[in-house]
Write the structure tokens for this entry.
Amino acid sequence: MKAVGLTRYLPIDDPDALQDLSVPMPVPEPRDVLVRVEAVGVNPVDTKVRAPKDAPVQPSPRILGWDVAGVVEAVGAEVTMFRPGDEVYYAGDITRPGGNSRYAVADERIVALKPRTLDFAQAAALPLTALTAWESLFDRLQLDPEGGNAGQSLLIIGGGGGVGSLGIQFARRAGLTVITTASREETSAWVQELGADHVVDHRRPLRPQVEALGFAHVDWIADFANTDPYWDQMVDLVRPQGRIVTIVDNTGPLATAEAKAKSVTHAWEMMFTRARFRTPDMIEQHRILERVAAWIDDGSLRQTLKTRLGPIDAANLREAHRRLESGTAIGKIVVAGWKD
């Protein structure tokens, strides 16, 4: 079957960074659905996995792409929630091949029916970022999605990206006052369209800007951008006994004395944790995606696709990676359709 993958970890400008391939059809395990892939979202995890690193040549091609929308082709012997013909979306498992292939498999516990009101490309923009934003706010920061923290303040660093675009909307639904970062005019306009109450410039010190809005501290912080350059500012800004969640690895030591003095809780969020470790609550990702689909379909949540490329091939996936690595992407980039 057709696929796009890599055998070496190369810069995106190298034509071999991502290659058009022919690979065997995957075989579903008992809890798997076999999905005919119609669209794939592209995320920073794709660029990070593909990026140059000290690693041997892969003995078999590595298939990236952990944001999928498509149609169930077949189901494993123990699958109970889906049947062939169902239109689904999911974010996948980083320990298994991704969705940059004509067919892919995924455990049914991390799959859901796609929003009825979206096409495949729009649906493929959602799963990974929706799950990351949801788990960051409601599992790691322990906010109440039903409004139990209404009126409290949340600072989102990186509001214009895929995760931030959904984090803003989830937080506003939960009644929080949302402050988010943006630097360019178009990014600022985007986050305000999504419901951000205030926008500050991440290129300038955050405290003076936050204080100018009337906040001495913020109750919660979600860093969806980069941990190292914002760590000290986050610890300074968060209230005593507040919480911070981050999704990007730090590259150097993080000073913890002030965080300890304030009894700050710092949590990491990794969307792949449940699938990777087969946690007992793995099915929560199915339930989260079901809720997201319902909110999309009733019009209370906005889809986040901003750039659509096609068809699914190495050239278009390399272009998607280039755009993400430029650091200027707003919302989500999706590659859709196949050229037969």
Remarks:
- DSSP finds eleven helices and 16 strands in the chain.
